[in-house]
Design goal:
heterodimer; A: 2 domains; B: alpha+beta; Glutaredoxin; 28% helix
Chain lengths: 244, 109
Amino acid sequence: MNVRTVVSAGVALRPHLTAVLLLFIAISECDSYASEPEPQEALAKFAKAWDESAWLPKGGGRFSGYMRPLDDRGWRERMSALVAVAKAGEESVGRLAESLKSGAVSERIFAAQALGCLPGAPARDALMQAAENDDDAAVRLYAVDSLGMIGASDLGDFFKRLESKEKNHDAKRHIGYALAREGKPLDPSVSKLLSNYDVKTIDSARLGEQAPDFELPSLGGKQVKLSDYRGQSAVVLVFVYGDT
Amino acid sequence: MRDRLDDIKKQGAELLAVDPHEDWSAKLFLKEIGLKTGDVGYPLLLDAAQTVSATYGVSFQMRVHTEWSNRPATFIIDREGIIRYERRGESFSDRPSPQAILAELKKLP
């Protein structure tokens, strides 16, 4: 019996098999990336990984409290969850919209993030509702991001109204970003890359081993492939965050 | 880092930067620090799906109210494609100095 069957059976026969399902999820924690989780399983994992206690202590500059420790697993779970949702595509829209409306904070955050990565401008009304009315600033922020990503060119006035009443500094900044993208939707290649991503390769770059190959577009519009440098020159690969 | 680009090239290496933003957003950031696309001097690669960042283990989720991001990280990959140096930052200022990178490049065969 494969993973998919076990999870589906567990969900179908709720609540009798809930305990079995939870046990299964607990066991699968040991080997999280060896298989692709179902979207609902992914969501449960993401919620669990959203652990406030994992943050580094505050102090030493405005941003130091923002970065999680190197051994934090939360981002891996989130990436796995996002990939699972992207693979499921439209199938996950209904559940995500439901989570966005009535889930716990961690579920609403994930749903608000994930809906922007799915093709077909899904759940726009639910995102607008969350962007305006959710109690949690992170949910509002991500809902605004996702509305921008689905290419809502007619939402300029809506964003401006939100901007005028948003009290949270970061959420307000992201409303500014949503306005700055001027209705430009997320490039469809992004959801395609996510749905084709093999979660087994998460965190697989190792010192002394072959660097995992990749091909990415440059800001100038050229495709750059790491392996094209092989035999030609060494590469200094620097990961940045808009701080070039 | 841009100031030391020539030194890096003299060591027979190329600099590649990976940014987790979409193109419009990366351009906005450059504009905020007074640069145009053509000013960067090295390929600024856009990893909006963050799959490359995930593979290299440098993705992380910032505290609520901000976003999904790259931690500052530097890898040196030799001509044969082998990773010879790696550093994943634990804070936003945690980066090797250009001198340290040049010293690592000199160690390459």
